[in-house]
Amino acid sequence: MIRKILIIPDCHRPFHSKKAWDLCLEIASFVGIDEIVLLGDFADFYSVSRYTKDPTLPHLLEKEISSVNAGLDDLDKLWCNHKKIYLSGNHEERLSSLILDRAPQLFGLTHCKNLFRLDRRINWTWIEYGHDQSYAVGGSKLLARHRPLTSNARSALLRAGCSYVHGDTHRIEEVHAVSFDKRDLVSFSPGWLGDERFDAFSYTLPQWQKGFAIIYVMNSSKEFHHEIVRIKNNIAICHGKVFKG
Question: Which of 51, 102, 192, 204 has the fewest Cβ atoms within 10 Å of its own Cβ atom?
């Protein structure tokens, strides 16, 4: 039996690409998935970031949280009874950082898990952001985390000593290696689902690609195969079928 897991990279809601998001959901429905893993930065939390704000972008925290909940609602409507993992990213961490900096007495009273209603949603698990963050995708030998272990993909794989998928970089990258004990290792990033038009801090051409990934796990051995689905010009191809956003 093969289990199929949808890997959703950074969306930065409400600054996500609506067409890329819809394509991701359409293709996942077509493939027929068994589990969902969010790689972090599903939320942007632009309104509470330390950066200088762009006056043309929305600054209301309430609207950002509403957009995140709308995205989670989409997943719940399509896959209510499926296992879903939310890996927190550095953007989700912005809220905790603000509270610690401005009102430490309130730390713990307000958390992303509550704002995103994960305590009331079915089959959701939250995994905190941090240096030891990891999740075994579908119970396989592939680990998921938000940030890569180093900025260089190959050195990050060698440092990890295991196969892992990450978000954060917004790039589609893939590196393979064989360990001394003959394990076939891979480290990859499936891109992102954000909209680069809203990125206020890119002063050069962003080297980013839109996409997501599907992991195929063989239950008997915990081995896995992965497929990165690239979204280019609002078009994606999966299993020989063309999908248009």
Answer: 204
